[in-house]
Amino acid sequence: MTLRTSPAAQGVFLCLALVGCGSERIADTSGARNELSIVIQPLGEVPAEQVAAVESALREQYGARITTAEPTPLPDEAYYAPRSRYRAERLLDALSAAHPEAEKVIGVTTADISTTKGEHEDWGIFGLARISGRVCVVSTHRLRARGAGEERFLKRLSTVARHEVGHTLGLRHCATVGCIMEDAKGSVATVDRARDLCDACAASL
């Protein structure tokens, strides 16, 4: 949940954990059409329970209509060989191209992802989003830190997903401790203390 300012797109991205290639929508998991529509795009092999956790979190937090797409491979052009991981901003581009008609898209991957942060050319992250944009991505790779069990791991994933989608809805980082939009600054401890949107962030939506 740290601001990532790459040389190519300074001020455009905010991070916590995306990617995308083409795939068709296959499973509408809500019964009603709500105002906000979100496509979940699994990138690579993502366990069903992890996708389900993201679905549940976004439906609960934003009242969204969720559609889950067929899994798609991580794009070769996003691979960063020196660190054996994927550049998140390239994943965002691929995801946007793959779902041009979608209102919002969130990519979910187990692969390690990174972006540029200040003097760090390649900084590992939980997720990445375009502020007030259509796309975001989350990675589970760093969410099992500190020996997290399955319950805590899935809670972290849910929090990161809610955070990144919040960015696509125009929310920026929040100074309120415990708000899901708080800047994680690379620490899962911050993710663990997140509870909900604070009153100010909720009102701004």
Could you describe the 3D structure shown?
This protein has 205 residues and is of the alpha/beta class. Helix content is 28%, strand content 25%. The longest helix has 19 residues.
Annotation field: number of helices: 5
CATH domain fold name:
Collagenase (Catalytic Domain)
Report the helical percentage: 25-40%
Strand order of the largest sheet: 1-2-11-12-8-4-5-3
What are the segments in which pLDDT stays under 50 over at least 5 consecutive residues?
1-34
Counted up, domains total 1
Which class do the helix and strand fractions yield? alpha/beta
Quick one: biggest sheet?
Answer: 8 strands, mixed
CATH architecture tag: 3-Layer(aba) Sandwich
Q: Supply the CATH class.
A: Alpha Beta
Radius of gyration: 15 Å
- Separation of termini? 19 Å
CATH superfamily: Collagenase (Catalytic Domain)
Q: Using the alpha-carbon principal axes, give the shape.
A: globular
Q: What fraction of residues sit in β-strands?
A: 25-35%
* Mean pLDDT score: 86
The succession of helices and strands, N to C, reads EEEEHEEEHEEEEEHHH
